[in-house]
Amino acid sequence: MTEGIFESDVSLEDRILGGLDDEQREVASTLNGPMCVLAGAGTGKTRAITHRIAYGVHSGVYTPQRLLAVTFTARAAAEMRSRLRDLGVANVQARTFHAAALRQLQFFWPQAIGGTLPNLLDHKANMIAEASRRLRLSTDRASIRDLAAEIEWAKVSMLTPANYLENAQDRGTPGGFDLTAVSRVFQAYEDIKTDRNVIDFEDVLLITVGILQEDPKVAATVREQYRHFVVDEYQDVSPLQQRLLELWLGGRDELCVVGDASQTIYSFTGASPKHLLGFKAQYPAANVVKLIRDYRSTPQVVKLANELLGSRRSGGPVADAAWAPPLKLVAQRPSGPEPKFMECPDDEAEAAVVAGRIKELLDAGVKASEVAILFRTNGQSEAYEQALASAGIGYQLRGGERFFARKEVRDAILQLRAATRAVAEGPVEPLGQVVRDIVASLGYSDAAPHSGGALRERWESLAALVALADELAVSRGEAFTLAEFVNELQERSVAQHAPTVQGVTLASLHAAKGLEWDAVFLVGLSEGLMPISFADAPEDVDEERRLLYVGITRAREHLNLSWSTARTPGGRANRKPSRFLDGLRPDSVASANARNRTGPTRRKAAAPASCRVCGSMLGTGAERKVGRCNQCPPTYEEQTFDALRQWRLDEAKTAEVPAYVVFTDATLTAIAEARPASLDELAALAGVGPSKLERYGEAVLAVLAESTDA
Prior knowledge:
By secondary structure, the chain is of the alpha/beta class. The strands form four sheets. Strands 3-2-6-7-1-8 form a six-stranded parallel sheet, sandwiched between helices. The chain has a six-stranded parallel sheet with strand order 11-16-15-12-14-13, sandwiched between helices. It is globular and about 95 Å long.
């Protein structure tokens, strides 16, 4: 137990509820009847529901073994169990829908169906490829992935191959195939599974639902076992998960759900916020509590998040429920820096600028593990991996090699387990020091190695284990033993609940859900990436807006939003900033028709199409930027151009970025030839966007003035 929380001279109410705000306290102290918690980002929802469970158990209202807490990821379930143990509650079942259903299926299969439970299929790809070959359909890895996603959507929507076609008319062409072909692949896939006696993850839920519907004895046993239910991230439940929950409840209403419709970002998997938004209609007596106090982010970050949702002009699931409009967050943290908006000439330059900004933060004392770069698609990560590596900054790719699969981590756990007996028999030392002594033989030291590469990565893995030991020794108390620590690592390994590793996090926006960092860089925020190009329906665009909202609300203090105008250096600058930034970024306006990009927008005048010297057509972007063809001699003065080039070099060295990131040669040439005398004249030149004008405008004008005086 945690020291101080369970002292006998402190009342139960003060021990469990003392540190909660009024709304959190209402959630935690209301133990019976249906409850819906509408919890905005950073408002402490996990704290509220874990304290609710702990208060219910310690007050005797809940029996730990008869309460089931359901989450959407194994990591979230492990985090909930860890928090509950810190609150002195060790036996509550906190599981994902799949894990809870699989546990029940394994127990009831022999009596309900007979025989041995079929093997569980880890991945669908091979069987879907085989199903496609049987139908003589030509597929590649991408189309197989899309077909797998479509079959998963169909199954969680409780569709079969027989009724898929009539219920999927708005699904487009998954994997590039018409819906008739998809339904045939779906049927062939199901046939192959039956032949091989295997089931997939969706079958676990489907079969459990079937048993509970058809076998009254099994249903009665489950309902006797579980009397109270808590469901986190309720906006993400699928029709199949909702049906399973209803069968678990069996008409009872001892249910607490927690969610935020503004963070619905998985509708492509069958998730829908309609159950959250319709909770009051289903349970008229439900107590609805709104958590809007944001303890995570600064007022500046919260303001941007609120404005992003406030600018939405379409319908959609959030707007459709009058009783649950988008939650307007109220910041509780002290003021911080304003979010920064950066326009870059190309992807490579954007990555270099981001790496430079990150280095500034690290030099200022921000930990690398508290910095994240978030992007829309995983394919965007490569440029940032290269930029960080070039800058000597360590990083970890979320979704890459799993922490507990690393050799040094597996070796460390083996040594820790082997040492448990010797430590138990020897003198008592602080857990953190014991772990340090044990993993020292694997390459750990208190000081990080100066070199990078594999040596540094190995050290960072071991350092994460040591830091976790220190953290748990504080939260669980001095009596927390090495054996208990090893058991904790084993449980975390199963749940893939990895400790924090030092290194900048690279992750997709979807993978960042549920996480937070001191500094967040949202990159690639241009049309076609945010919103993604295939989000053409209003509801799809609305989900992309919510995805950006999730990204913004991951940041505690520092928030950077960037985009590039071209894909490659020297490429055509035809990209536009995301419509979602209209009215949010400096020098932009919110267009009434921004959703369809049909309304008036403020755009820079087009670069000249013909050479101002000889009148010939300009063929390249660089020529159009300068306004002169390559055959005509430059019209700038050498001393002016040299002064600008030296200034650019000094600026690049200071920011530790390539010179072209400041201004490209073509833009520098255009400035030297045009010799603008004001910021307005400078802004009229191609290649000088709002962010560069703000950052470099005055300095450029000063250089031009000095070169004229000389």
